Amino acid sequence: MDVFASTDGQESDGHEQVVFCQDKQSGLKAIIAIYSTALGPALGGTRFYPYASEAEALHDVLELSRGMAYKNALAGLDLGGGKAVIWGDPDRIKTEPLLRAYGRFVESLNGRYYTACDVGTYVADMDVIARETRFVTGRSVEHGGAGDSSVLTAWGVFQGMRAAAEHVWDSPTLAGRRVGVAGLGKVGRHLVAHLIDDGASVVATDVNERALAWVRQTYPQVDLVSDATALVTSDIDVYAPCALGGALDDTTVPALRARVVVGAANNQLAHPGIEKLLADRGVLYAPDYVVNAGGVIQVADEIEGFNFDRAKLRATKIYDTTRDILRLADAEGVPPAVAADRLAERRMAEVGRLRTIHLR
Ligand SMILES: NC(=O)c1ccc[n+]([C@@H]2O[C@H](COP(=O)([O-])OP(=O)(O)OC[C@H]3O[C@@H](n4cnc5c(N)ncnc54)[C@H](O)[C@@H]3O)[C@@H](O)[C@H]2O)c1
Q1: What's the rounded Cα separation, in Å, for the pair 28 and 195?
Q2: Per its UniProt record, what Pfam families does this chain match (predicted)?
Q3: I need a surface site. Which of 123, 145, 238, 273 has the fewest CB within 10 A?
């Protein structure tokens, strides 16, 4: 893995800084990767995960930090992209000393990197990390934090879906459309509420019985199907993957009946090339990292002192960003995923360049 080149073999500036952190006594082994600070301090969560090897942990943190730079750029934030991984099983090794040791390493970067929650880390962990560093978001409401980020993630996904509906059906509403939601977790549930309010009919699936019980109880009008395969092959206009990554692969895409795919899940495309397969089938795919940026918008707002209305206003702009990307994709004859990358790179270059104007 070449840290100084791009992570995908394509032309790119590579990462700015990668820091390996170790505290033997607490068992901490962490890697903090800063892809870009062109737009401001790098923001991205800490993933706590039992990677099979150090190489695997490094690969993940390099990919994830690069993704955050693109996500934050398109979210209109004055923040660059970074990410961290803690290598180990959180259920076995997560302790106060370990989290605080990690917090001291974050502090040592002096604000070049802000951390937040990710897989394996929670709001309560951020409160512990914050005892050692100022550069942490995603804290509890009691500590001035934004709380559950799924609220604005779902709102942003809904805005992205409205923009996609306008692009395909000339009207920014899901009223009268049938939307298939895979995954009724924190984000999926809020999304179902927005869709019902907008007048859509919803069909959904989840592997968790409690999630299904919630929807039966709260929205009896939602149809339920056995699994994601049944969902993608049913008569839906929009498919919203809100469970795990890799929802769009060589099996699902050919079977998909929806015209539009907009969902919260990260890394929906199972491998490069799927975006072309979708375009060839006439399926409009709104890139996941564009429409699911409401969560990072919510936690980023903490840096200014959290204000829900301000954060919601910013997440509402995901509608405009998605619309611009879909138009650019049409104008340049490329899939929306490629147009989104181009727009993010343009903002990082054009706004990042302004720092060369000397102030004093
Ligand atoms: N929470 C956020 O703020 C946020 C922000 C950006 C992206 N995301 C992404 O959105 C997705 C959902 O996040 P969440 O916070 O709602 O997670 P969650 O864990 O609360 O919910 C996920 C749901 O998906 C269900 N599920 C798992 N496998 C499934 C399968 N094969 N078929 C159907 N359902 C399945 C689970 O039972 C669960 O109910 C994740 O991919 C996450 O990375 C979340």
Answers
A1: 43
A2: ELFV_dehydrog, ELFV_dehydrog_N
A3: 273
